[in-house]
Amino acid sequence: MKTKFLILFSIGLYYANNIYAQNPIVGAGLEVDPYHYEITRTGTYENGTVACAHPLASQVGVAVMKRGGNAFDAAIATQLALAVVYPGAGNIGGGGFMTARIASSSSNIMLDFREKAPSHASRDMYLDKDGNAVLEKSQNGHLSAGVPGTVAGLFKTLPYAKLSFKELIEPAIILAEKGFVLSEKEANGLNSDRANFIKYNTLKKIAFVKDTGIWHAGDTLVQPELAETLKRIQKDGAKGFYEGKTANYILEEMKRGGGIITLDDLKNYEAKERIPLSFQYRGYEVISTPPPSSGGLILAQVLRMIEPFPVADMGFHSTLSIHLIAEAERRSFADRAKFMGDPDFWKVPDSALISTKYLMQRMSDFNPDSATPSKLIDAGNIPVSEQTTHISIADKQGNMVAITTTLNNHFGSKTVAGHAGFILNDEMDDFSVKPGVPNMYGAIGGEANAIAPNKRMLSAMSPTLVLKNGNPFLVVGTPGGTTIPTSVIQSIVNVIDYKMSIEKAIAEPKFHLQWSPDILYVEKGFDTRILDSLRKMGYTIQERGGIGRTEIVEFKNGKLLSASDPRGDDSVAGY
Ligand code: DON
């Protein structure tokens, strides 16, 4: 049986390699071989670099830069490639945020292409007749999907790019049509959701469920229906997604599965340009996401709350430095739950939340000797399998692009948009489905983040740039649900305060405290004596799986240094 499989696999590989031999170019001029690729964790480059969750997508981004594109071209091509080769999180059926710096004008931009609630959504749509939250519906299947924003976001990025969208989408089309080889992690990821795919889809055949059983490393994943959708986008632009055949496929899927996204919801979706949130930390300028992401505000609050303290002198991962950052996080996440939501629906007191006076007052009850207990609220469990994805890109002109997009958790709603071949998000769970009821990341919320038609759900995504003396320094971001801001914060503190290399800064174990639940989560690898002393101060500590998959690019001595997170298949490329 095994021999038979090996022979068939080799024949498959032979034909596939032949196709690529005739067509060696995945998007003209690229050396991207979807059958043989390796992970490159770090690199130093002259001209341009991409760090993201999949080696093929990083290579596609660099290839378009080599053909005359800039960091924005790479962002579009990489995101589209991720939608194919990293379907658990890379997406066209989700949404995200982009923070970027345009070198020619030394200006910063922020694009919000977060999903929005369908027009027929309502505040209590996930409550049963007794008023209990039914999280199954906000987290899986048709009703959990928000109106996707990614494609609109990519077209909003296009004016900053140099190549045509037609060229930039070509590699993704070829990768979907001809297939690519799965790594072990990807094969396992698909297998772990096999039962969910079967449960939450209405079509008998979807690309992610292998007819003959489970996926193995080395199998080829081909996505013909996704390729057709990408071709429609290539031909008709954003309308190829939000109108016509693709929109109809989404609508038909909604009808078959009890979802509520309408043709008008799709047609009316708009990505928005917002003013990036920027603030100073130890003389560096940090630029990140404003609401409807909580990410930038949490970054600003936590970093500015810890700024008056000598974090470097306290020592890396010392009891005191962990305690300080955790207490700042506790206060910030409490603010998130009360004050943060879609600014088009809710007045977020953003400048008040990051004013020096307010933050000093917030930390005035910080006790260096003991943990401040969070209010006792029903605690949710933070899952270890989370799926969002971040791309950090820079080019030698000084363009910087940080883009984080998501389906929410692993394979989003698990529902494929019918014959359109892509996974729909389950972003509706990022709303507060009921005050005090934790979402899948254990986050609670209230009025600010209640569901309303066309409202954007609160996010934690934090694609972030750091400038040093006004010049490009870091491009940074990560997935991880509510742990996103804390991973970004710790990566920045590791580089700025502890003078670590970017590679070390992201590889070091991370910790996370989000007010509710009142638990200090830690990755493996902390000194047990330090953890014991934190317990004595009143912390409840819980070890959990990986926190974040951070990608960083650093501008250093005229070069571009790139580092990808060792927690996944993440890989850098550059030239
Ligand atoms: O927008 C948010 O904050 C979440 N939907 C992000 C989810 C996430 O990062 C899952 N990741 N690994």
Bound molecules: 6-diazenyl-5-OXO-L-norleucine
Ends distance: 43 Å
What kind of sheet is the major sheet?
7 strands, antiparallel
Label the overall shape.
globular
Structure description:
With 575 residues, this protein is α+β, with helices and mostly antiparallel strands. It folds into 2 domains: 7-272 and 389-449, no CATH class; 273-388 and 460-574, Glutamine Phosphoribosylpyrophosphate, subunit 1, domain 1. It is built from 20 helices and 19 strands. Helix 2 (55-66) packs antiparallel against helix 3, helix 6 (165-178) runs antiparallel to helix 9 (224-236) and helix 13 (295-306) runs antiparallel to helix 15. It is globular and about 60 Å long. Mean pLDDT is 92; it is low at 1-25 and 376-384. The structure holds 6-diazenyl-5-OXO-L-norleucine.
